[in-house]
Fold each of these.
Amino acid sequence: MKNFYIVLGVVAIAGAGLVWWALRGGAGAIAPIDLGDIADAELVELAQGVVYGDPDAPLTIMEFADYQCSHCATFALSVKPLLDTDYIETGRANLVFHDFPSGQFPHSFLAARAARCAGEQDRYFEYHDEIFRTQMDWFDLESPAGFFRDLAAGLELDSREFRRCLGSDRYADVVTANRALGARLGVTGTPFVFVHDGQTLTFTGSYAFADVQRALEAAGSGN
Amino acid sequence: MTDSAAGGPPALPKNRKAIALLSLAGVFLAFYLVAHNLGWAPPLLCGTGDCGVVQSSSHAWVGPIPVAAIGLAGYLGLLVLALLGLQESMAGSRLIALLLFGGALAGVLYSGYLTYLEAAVIKAWCRYCVASAILITVVFLATIPELKRIRGVGRE
């Protein structure tokens, strides 16, 4: 009987160790997944961006951004509000945000998924702005999952649902597909901004407001 | 109410040792899935199969309760019963035998239903659910000797 309890103890310790190992982190998918050999059409279908503004606007500002990149934060917090005033609120253009976790930073992928989880509760861009606004607060954390959960709670999202989403692999495929789409479109850095007039995709040259504005005006005038 | 030979201490049922060990493994397996369901865990380590599809389906929950939590409670119950049944004073208990057999039977039936859902409704397989289905089936087989105790065979 003594031997039995020894074996039981060994199984208990081994099981607890395995569970601890499997649960460490608690952050959900934190890196791109393998999408296999995905065709262009399938990739476009999966790589849905998030639309800000009128979905039927004649022009689209197509942004590929990395949540941990400081220039992307500048674009989100300084350039986007100008575009908002001049183009998006007036219905002349919308903005479609695509995730592009470049691989340069450790938390970009999780941040992208966190924003998608907030999007489930129709708060994508509020959360997007908050992530960028607080970028320096979570940038160096070993795991920012708790920070992202607190951010969601601060925005009064359904915390339980957000936690379940963030702790899962939900949107890992979508974010991965976004990144793959950007790569196929020639995105080489972030933020990478295109203007799309329904037919032609034009790289703006930089994320500076003047360059994006120039591209929008050119596309809007049919040039 | 014992299996023992007259005069000697009751023989400790070996099958209950197996049930205890297997149920303990089931406890860890189910706990892992519960942790995933509640968002405490990273994505399931799922090299083959579609764990994510299964675990994010509506069939992974019964109202607010993850199905895995039902499994966790079941395995814990079987573990406690098996350990109780290994105590000399309870080795021949018909109640323990009945609860062990009944619990394992309920578990194997429910697990069979969940396996059917995976195959026919969700059309995706979760390796942990399959592992649990195999585990509870083996636990159930290990409870078959309990039938003798339930019927009182071997009682003095």
Amino acid sequence: MSHTLKTALGVIALIALAAVGYFGLADNLAFMTQVVIMMIFVLSLDYVLGYAGISTLGHAAMFGTGAYAAAIFATSVSSDPILGILAGAVAGGAIALLSGFVLMRAHGLTLLMLSIAVTEVLHELANKYSGITGGADGLSFTPGPILGRFEFDFAGHIAYIYSVCLLLLVFIKLRVLTASPFGLAARGIRESQARMRAIGTPVYWRMLLIYTFGGAFAGVAGALSAQTTALVSLSVYDFQLSAGAVLMLILGGTGQLWGAILGTMVYMTVHQIASSVDPFNWLFIIGAMVLIVVYLVPNGLMALPALLLRWRRK
Amino acid sequence: MTEPLLRLRNIRAGYGRTQIVNDISLDIQQGERLALIGRNGMGKTTLLATIMGLTQLHSGKMEWCSQSILDMPTHRRAALGLGLVPQTRDIFKSLSVEENIIAGLRGDATLEEAYALFPRLKERRKNGGGQLSGGEQQMLSIARTLMGRPKLLMLDEPLEGLAPTICDMLMGVFEGLAKAGATTIILVEQHADLAVGFADRVVILDTGMIAYQGTTASIKADHTILDRLVGVGLAEV
């Protein structure tokens, strides 16, 4: 099956999934929109962590910066949502590029700690410059109509459809990117940086570019989150956001775009149900689920069918 | 004598503070076939890795076409024309055979060139890198390196653990590359007979130093050299 056909089938599958969500959970479109936004965010993380092996616990830095960029852009330049998304992508990419100059020289635990530190610095900056960001009160704004026609409605129909469209665009872009020689190099870097250097790849610059692209996609997710809720608060830089995205990715399976989508879907659904059943101990259920999956299916839920087939043959 | 392609002077290198290569000076001429042999742990692999910029260089000078490459990062050395086929082969297991080759493509190199050299890889092009036999992995590792159009091809024990028919096939490929004239070859090999049979010149390493260097003819004339320094005589191999 050709790569283009696989991508087309993937897009159809995503549209079908989105339609099921739209019609099946019509009363809960706000939650569904959040799931879609998280899918974009986790896809961006998968590109950085799953494909290129860049360990990070600070992906919220790009998400948060994208969110603030979209909000500030809407309040001071233009309320056009598409332009706001572009502003978020540029801001997310710029923060990734700037921090990446240092981060991409680090490895392992140092890289993890530095990625957290970048997010904390941005959190503090957003808090300190409350005149621009709204500080602890947050920054509220009113996004304009999409393409000048579609106003965000109270029930969240437009926000959901808009988010799904962006998810499809990000999915297609990542499919193209990961199958290109550039994407192959990313996977090569994950497996052996030394070998990639020896066949002529400037590993540091390539990783910086990958991190920047991943940051731009995370910025899109952040901007979308800001636009669909019409609010940005300091929580966009929360450590839990970065850590949660890593858990979703591990749950679904790293280095495969569908793993990011499946992991986000499962995690957020279980999270939604568990927190409504037990608002105080829902983390226990999430923790237990991740432990069981990691123990039984180390490569994530995407590897489950193959594993079940192997068990059946035995 | 013309300027050497690669000039090493008093090279001391290793991993971290551990020094494995001790004071090696060596000139490699364009179009030469050099066999680098020695017992295990004598520094052959480390010397190749050092030329490629993959180890910690402690001191010495290294010139490529009279230009110092001492501070040059590995990827730029590869771009200049240095190519290393590592002993570990380093196949990217998550990539298919074709994707592994594409990852190494530089300039005007094409997939078809790799397949012309190793038709077996074309048959297996959709297979994962982790699904190949040892021989196929070696073919892939060589093909991927050749896609960078190396002027100096460093082969680190390319025949290790391979069936005799595969060894013959690979030696035929090396012979073809050398005869074409554009590729200078350094062959590190435990099969001393194959290495000596292939090379113009032989360098024997012992405890990270050059214990002997001379022409193939001179080593064939004195059978005791290999026996003394490597532990095998040409008669045995």
